[in-house]
Amino acid sequence: MPTSVHDRRWWVLAVLCVVVLIVVIDNTIVNVALPVLSKDLHASNSSLQWIVDAYSLPFAGLLLAGGGLSDRLGRKRVMQCGLVAFGVFSLMAAFSSSVSTLLVARALMGAAAAFIFPATLSTLTVAFDDLSERAKAFGAWGAAGGVAIAIGPVVGGALLVHFWYGSIFLINAPLVVVAVVAAAYVVPESRSPQQRRVDLGGLALGTVGVTSLTFAIIEGPSWGWLSDATLGLFVLAVASLAAFIRHELGREGPLLDVRVFRNRSFSASAGAISVNYFCLFGFIFLITQYFQLIRGYSALSAGVHTLPFAVITMIATPVGAVAALKAGTRYVVSAGLVILGAALAWAGFVAASAAYFGPIIAIMMIMAFGFSLVNAPATASLMSTLAPEQIGAGAAVNETTRELAGAMGVAVVGSVFSSLFGPHVRAALRPYLARGLSLHQLNLAASSTHAAQLVVAHFPAALRPTIGAQVTDAFMDGLHRGCLVAGGVSFVAALVVFARLPKGVLGDARSLVHA
Questions:
Q1: Do 216 and 311 lie in a common domain?
Q2: In angstroms, rounded to a whole number, what is the distance separating the alpha carbons of residues 336 and 347?
Q3: Does the pLDDT value for residue 514 go beyond 50?
Q4: Residue (of 218, 359, 371) closest to 283 by Cα position
Q5: Which residues make Cβ contacts (< 8 Å) with residue 405, sequence separation at least 6?
Q6: What phi-psi label fits residue 365: left (phi over 0), alpha (psi between -120 and 50 degrees) or beta?
Q7: Computed from CA positions of residues 127, 129, 135, 136, in that sequence, does the dihedral angle turn out positive or negative?
Q8: Quick check: 166 and 33 in contact, CB under 8 A?
């Protein structure tokens, strides 16, 4: 094997893609298990959202700290320590027997992942000094992340067919061992030339702000959007985030240098990445439940039915990087967001019984293509604006926007779904309170689709088709509205990105630094 960093840069890329695969796949592998978790752990809709977001929130909240420590202590060292912790907490999740235990384990996994991910992008930036090669490397890196997100349901489904739900976490352990050993031999060590103290105040304020905002969005449908608890959390989120910005502006070595968002290329690219993952995570949260609870697919079948997304992402992500080199990041990223929004808008009108080899697969393939056009060019544009000493922090910002947006996608789209599903089910079943249905059963049915289907199963056989159809209609109404909201966000983002991103191509990235 080549000995210099430059000579082995493609081997470095391969190892980092494996690391990305391990960390990112856990964002979506759990989605296919949601119906199983709803059944085995009696999880409500809000609990299911928290099972997904318990990983993403600590991931997003600690990424900036992870990037700072990587720059200071060594990117390879921090990445390997994070991988070991990730493996240990995966074992904890695998043997969880309650929602609360699983949430703690998932949160610890997300925290460990936050110290892994920034190092991958920082190391990649250091290993590839040629801008054209770096753009292609970002394409492969982005493809690994996109494929990991898409194949999570496939891997999870295959495991759930043969094993218990804990197997989707247990599989991480051997993969972590492989990644740690490979990184030890292949990945070079690197540090930032500037050493900064960890900003504990910024970390605390940012974490409180992000967590309280997500908490309010997820629990709003069940607590009431105008309840004291929901409004109080929103006020806390706004106050904390405002204090975070003020704190960072006044600090010499900030956790997040918010001034970088004044750079048009940086802010537009970060925004595009955020919307990309907001839409993707929200869609996957709903579509995996649709396949299992509405179409009746097994966990494995549901995962396999999402495979076209992975295939298109794997093919199209490098194409997006190359297209940006030719046509310019502005046009490629904006087009990707428009395509993504169009696919989501189409999903907002699809029928519950729509043919898979028809509208369903077409929506996923179009969505994957749009997603792929955004990912690599926007990442390359964002990283190209940074000075060498900002690489670690920039990588952390990139991943923070990605993970936070993914968590918000699940929270917002999931809450839009819940805000429609619960009231619709209540309205459909309330007339039966006088005919033997208990108030407890009514509340249970409104809490999740699986619970509603269990309640319907206790009705007389003659009534089940009619009531079951009403539950399906409630689910589809929530899915439609959630997809339309996400699609609208993507269309608006396309306009903003087109207006703010400079016209230069990736090959002219140096000219964008001060844009």
A1: no
A2: 17
A3: no
A4: 371
A5: 273, 274, 275, 276, 277, 278, 281
A6: alpha
A7: negative
A8: no
Q: Indicate the number of domains in the chain.
A: 2
Residues 249 and 289 placed together within one structural domain of the fold: no
Does pTM top 0.90 for this prediction? Answer: no
CA distance 7 to 381: 25
For residues 223 and 231, give the distance between their C-alpha atoms in angstroms, rounded to a whole number: 10
Q: Do 206 and 320 reside in the same domain of the chain?
A: no
Q: Which of 485, 487, 503 is nearest to 338 (CA)?
A: 487
Looking at the structure, do residues 309 and 171 belong to the same domain, yes or no? yes
Half-sphere exposure of 499 (CA within 13 A, CB side): 7
Q: 451 in a domain, yes or no?
A: no
pLDDT in tens, 283-297: 988 888 898 889 988
Q: What distance in Å separates the CA atoms of residue 7 and residue 1, rounded to the nearest whole number?
A: 9
Instruction: Report in angstroms the alpha-carbon separations of 34 from 163, 350, 421, 436.
Output: 15, 22, 17, 30
Whole-number Å distance between alpha carbons of 51 and 55: 7
The answer as to whether 49 is a domain residue is yes
Q: How far is CA 476 from CA 290, 309, 424, in A?
A: 8, 21, 11
Kindly state whether residue 192 falls inside one of the protein's structural domains: yes
Q: What is the CA radius of gyration of the chain?
A: 22
Domain span holding position 239: 199-254
Measured between alpha carbons, how far apart are the two ends of the chain, in Å?
40
Choose among 32, 18, 47: nearest CA to 447.
47
48, 421 contact by CB (below 8 A): no
435 part of a folded domain: no
Residue 109 sits in a domain whose CATH number is 1.20.1250.20
The full DSSP string for 85-139 is HHHHHHHHHHT--SHHHHHHHHHHHHHHHTTTHHHHHHHHHHH--SHHHHHHHHH
Distance of alpha carbon 463 from alpha carbon 456, whole angstroms: 9
Q: What letter does residue 255 receive in the DSSP assignment?
A: S
pLDDT digits over 350-363, tens only? Answer: 999 999 999 999 99
- 222, 314: one domain: no
